[in-house]
Amino acid sequence: TSLIDIKGVRHAYKTANGPLPVLDGLNLSVPEGGFCAVVGPSGCGKSTLTRLVAGLMKPDEGEVTLHGEPVRGPRSTVGMAFQNPVLLEWRSILKNVMLPLEIVPGGLKGKAAEDRARYLLSLVGLEGFEDKRPSELSGGMRQRASLCRALVHQPEVLILDEPFGALDAFTREDLWQTMHEVKAKEPFTGVLITHDLRESIFLGDQVVVLSGRPARTQYVMEISRDK
Ligand code: ADP
Ligand code: ADP
Prior knowledge:
Layout: E1 2-15, E2 18-31, E3 35-39, H1 46-53, E4 61-66, E5 69-70, E6 78-82, H2 93-103, H3 110-123, H4 139-151, E7 157-161, H5 169-185, E8 190-194, H6 197-203, E9 206-211, E10 216-222
Parallel strand pairs: 3-8, 3-9, 6-7, 7-8
Antiparallel strand pairs: 1-2, 1-4, 4-5, 9-10
The structure holds adenosine-5'-diphosphate (2 copies).
C-alpha cells in the first residue's frame, strides 16, 4: 500500500481571464520509503503538485491521500525544502535546523532537540558550522542546512522543490551523493521536483514525467537500484 496516492487530479486556477487549467489527469503513487522524482517543463504544475501533497490547496477533482486518508489542510507531518532556502539570519545554523521542533506539536525539546539537529548536520557534512549564521555559508551548505531543517521533525513526507536548481554542477552532484547517504541513515518518503532528468534518475526510485498543457502524468519509470 502507498503512503502518497494521487488519483485523477484535475485543477484549474481561477484568474481574471477565467479558469487556467493546470493539471488534467495527475496520477502518482509513492510507497513508504519511496523517493519519487517528478520531472516536467517549467509551468507544468510541479509546484501545484507539492501544494496538493502538503495540504496547502485542494484539487477541483480527484483524490490526494496520505496512508489512505484524504489530505485536508496543511500538516506538520510534511517537511519541505525549496530552491532558495529561507534561513533566518538572526539565528545560528543549529537554531535554524531546530525551528520545526519549536513549532510542531509534540516535537523534541531542549537537549534532545539540539542533539537531533547536531546529528543531522553531521550527516550532511556541516559539523563545525552549527554556530555560524546563514550568510557565512555557501549556497550548497545552506541547502544542506535546509535539508536538515526539513527532516528534523521526522516528517511523514519530504517534499523537495528544485532544491539543487540554483547550484553549480559540482556542488549539485556533491549534494546528490549526500542525499543518498542521508536516505540510508535517515529513511524518508520523498517527492523531488526537478527539471533535471539526470538528477531524477540518479536520485529517484521512480520517475514521473508530467507534460502537456494542462499537464498530465505521461509516464512513470521505475528505477531499480542495488540496495
Ligand atoms: P511549475 O512548478 O511546474 O513551474 P506551477 O505549479 O507553479 O508550475 O504553475 C503551473 C501554472 O499555474 C503556471 O502557468 C502558473 O503561472 C499557474 N499558477 C500557479 N499558481 C497560480 C495561482 N495561485 N494562481 C493562478 N495561476 C497560478
Ligand atoms: P515556481 O517557479 O517556484 O514554480 P511560480 O512562478 O510558479 O514558482 O509561482 C510562485 C508563486 O506565485 C506561487 O505561490 C504561485 O502560486 C504564484 N503564482 C504563479 N503564477 C501565478 C499567476 N498566474 N497568478 C497568481 N499567482 C501566481
